[in-house]
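Lecture notes, unit on binding sites. The following record was shown on slide 14. It pairs a sequence with pyridoxal-5'-phosphate.
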Amino acid sequence: MAKAQETVLEINLNALEHNYRYLKSKISSKTKFLGVVKAYAYGSDAVAIAQKLVTVGADYLAVAYTEEGVALRNAGIKIPILVLHPQIVSFDTIIERCLEPNIYSERILTAFITAAERHQQKNYPVHLKFNTGLNRLGFNAHDISKITRKLAETSTIKVLSIFSHLAASEDINEKEFTLSQIKSFHEICTQIDAALPYIPFKHLANTSGIINYPEAHFDMVRSGIGLYGFGNDPIEDKNFIPIVTLKTNISQIHYLEANESVGYNRAFTSNSPIKTATLPLGHADGIGREYGNGKGVVCIHGHYAPIIGNTCMDMIMVDVTAIGCHEGDEVIVFGEKPTATEFAQGANTISYEVLTGISQRVKRVIIE
Ligand SMILES: *Cc1c(COP(=O)(O)O)cnc(C)c1O
């Protein structure tokens, strides 16, 4: 690992492979594996992650929006790609690029059938999503007869799979609710299988579902955060390796007298002499203002240094009074220590948000 001479997000594909193999060890060899690579593969690099997942043997990929799937097709990714939240304006592109839409409502079903007819498709693969309690996207169980009637009238599309999404699979206190979601999904599967002339495959579990609910793996599992190295639980986290490290280096050191202030609006004033380090990343890179004023803590030579004052657009200042460090020295914003989860906790948020928030200005460096 090279020392950072600028702000970089290092992406470790060996760690990705480790996480993939750990997740695979939790599922049956007959269960398919879908890697979720939406939002630039949780803020990393969707193409590099997708290519590695293809190499290690993932069966499916998923993105949120069509353009994310197009980027993967343009990079030569050939395995099936599920588009989790397709918009009607992108249906032509979906078909042209062989992407597979989530069909989650009657409006979307009707519009997609029209698009498939326009492209003279036969049995175009689609995936039906059911709402079992997340109340976000999905048909409800009582829509089944309407759906199957509509499907019977057309040969343009074919339901490859049916799926749903768990609301709180990481939360043991919500076990009863999760079990009720699993039960509802079973009932939906039974009804669909009885109503269609063929049997679609089924999937429900996200990362925490894979870990906590082996009875809910069905025919495929969908993992995002686990691939990127987080188990949504301090004990499970030990089985994963965070794949990204956000690193930078010290641009400048300042020695301040007592009562001098740091940064915009003079948000920080020291009451004793301090040593500060200015770092070349800020809210335009994804370290938002919520990390300012001591909420975010970075790591320099193994020692923690809190962010002082307000986060600027392109810079943050940290207190390094107690740290023997120099201009040009490496700084870890998050990675192994602190982890993205720990860094995020300072601002009351979660790994998912801090990872996906790292802006495209930060250079991605792939290591393997
Ligand atoms: C994002 C997403 C996932 C991945 O969830 P993780 O908790 O990151 O494993 C799985 N399924 C759906 C429908 C999603 O939107």
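Take-home: Residues 36, 84, 165, 206-207, 222-226 surround pyridoxal-5'-phosphate (CB under 6 Å).
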